Amino acid sequence: MNATHWPTAHVLVTGAHGFLGRHVVDRLKAVGCTSFATPRSSEYDLREKAAVVALYEQVRPSIVIHLAAVVGGIGANQQRPAEFFYSNLMMGSQLLHEAWRAGVAKFVSIGTVCAYPKFTPTPFREEDLWQGYPEDTNAPYGMAKKMLLVQGDAYRRQYGFSSIFLLPANLYGPGDNFDPGTSHVIPALIRKCVDAVATGAESIEVWGDGSATRDFLYVTDAAEAVVAAAERYDHSDPVNIGSGREISIAELAGAIAGGVGFRGRIVWNGARPNGQPRRQLDCSRAESRFGFRARTEFGDGLRRTIAWYRTTLAARDAAPAIPLPTDVGLP
Q1: Quick check: bond before 123 cis, omega within 30?
Q2: β-pairing, 247-248 with 213-214?
Q3: Coil, strand, or helix at residue 116?
Q4: Of the residues 51, 66, 110, 310, which has the maximum number of CB atoms within 10 A of its CB?
Q5: Dihedral angle computed from the Cα positions of residues 166, 169, 170 and 171, in that order, rounded to the nearest 10 degrees
C-alpha cells in the first residue's frame, strides 16, 4: 500500500486500547489515516466466530492490524498456558479467516519473539523460526501466535490473500502494564524499585540469576514499524522488529535501580526460571523491506518510561498493603 492511500483507508485495529495499540493508532493519525475502528473486547469477544463475523459486517475495514492478545510474564504464562494458547489461537485464526471472507485488502499479524526456539543462535534470524521448540515457560503462547504465520502463508498461496507477519522484540515505554501480577520485566522492576524507595526497603527480589538477555524495543518505534510494514510490505516472509541490542537482565536491573534511585540489594532467586537464555534480533530484513530501523536509544527510552510511571501511576500504586509478587520475568 502506498502512503498516499492512508487518507482513504479504513483500518480496523484490534487491541487498540492496549499498550502497543494506543501508539499504533497515534501513528496512523500521524500518517494521515482518518478512518479507523477500535473496538473493545467488551464489545466483541474475538474468540467467538459470530462476534468476528459481526465485527467485519459492521466495520467493513480495508486493512486489519491485529494487536489483541492475552499476554503476561513468565508467572502468568506458567499459570495459564491453556488460556494463553486457546485465546490467542482462536482470535488470530478466526480474524484472519473472516478477513479473507470479507474481502479485506490486507491483514497485519503481530507475532512474538517467544515463537523462536529456546536455543536460537543470536542474533535471531527469521530463517531460524522452525529450528526447534520455543522455551517451555511460554511455548503455548509462542506457538499460538506462530500459527498466524502458517495461516497467512497458506491463504496467500491458495487465495492470493495479502497477509504479513511481524515478530516484535520485548516492548517497553510509557503506557505499559505495571500490574505486578501480569507485567513484563521492565515495568515490574520499575514499580518494585519505586516502591522500595518509597517504603525504605533494603532489597528487592528478582526471578532467575540475571544472566538471561533480551532485545528491548521502545513502543513508539514498534508502532512506527507496524504502520510502515502495513504501508510498504506485502510478502509471507516473517519480519523481526527490534532494536538489535542485547541486554542482560542483570544489566537492566542495575540500570533501573540507578534510574529510580534505589540503592539497596537486588536479590536473585535462582530457584525461579530465567525464561529463554538469550534474545537479540537481526532486524536487517525490516530495514531492507520497508525501511524500519529503531531510533530510540535504550537509556533514553528507559528514562522516559520511569518518568511516565512516576508522574502517572506511582502515587496511585505506592506502598502496597501486601508484598508484591516476585514474578518480574518475561517471556
Answers
A1: yes
A2: antiparallel
A3: coil
A4: 110
A5: -70
Q: Say which amino acid occupies 172.
A: Y
Q: Is 230 exposed, middle or buried (0-12, 13-18, 19+ CB in 10 A)?
A: buried
The yes-or-no verdict on residue 155 having pLDDT over 70 is yes
Average pLDDT, the chain: 92
Mark whether 141 is an active-site residue. yes
Tell me the residue type at 282.
Answer: D
Provide the residue type at 303 as one letter.
R
Task: Report pTM.
Answer: 0.92
The one catalytic residue among 141, 155, 172, 218: 141
Q: Pick from 294, 40, 282: which is nearest to 172 by CA?
A: 294
Percent above pLDDT 90 for the chain: 85
- Sequence-distant (6+) residues with CB within 8 A of 127 are none
Residue 50 has pLDDT above 80, yes or no: yes
Asked whether the predicted pLDDT for residue 323 surpasses 90, the reply is: no
- The mean per-residue pLDDT over the stretch 52-60 comes to 98
Taking only the tens place, the pLDDT of each residue in 283-318 is: 999 999 999 999 999 999 999 999 999 998 766 665
Q: Which domains does the chain have, with CATH numbers?
A: 3-171+216-241 (3.40.50.720)
Judge whether 201 and 195 are in contact, CB under 8 Å: yes
Q: Helices (DSSP H) in the chain: which residue ranges?
A: 19-30, 49-59, 74-79, 81-102, 139-159, 185-199, 219-232, 249-260, 284-290, 298-312, 314-317
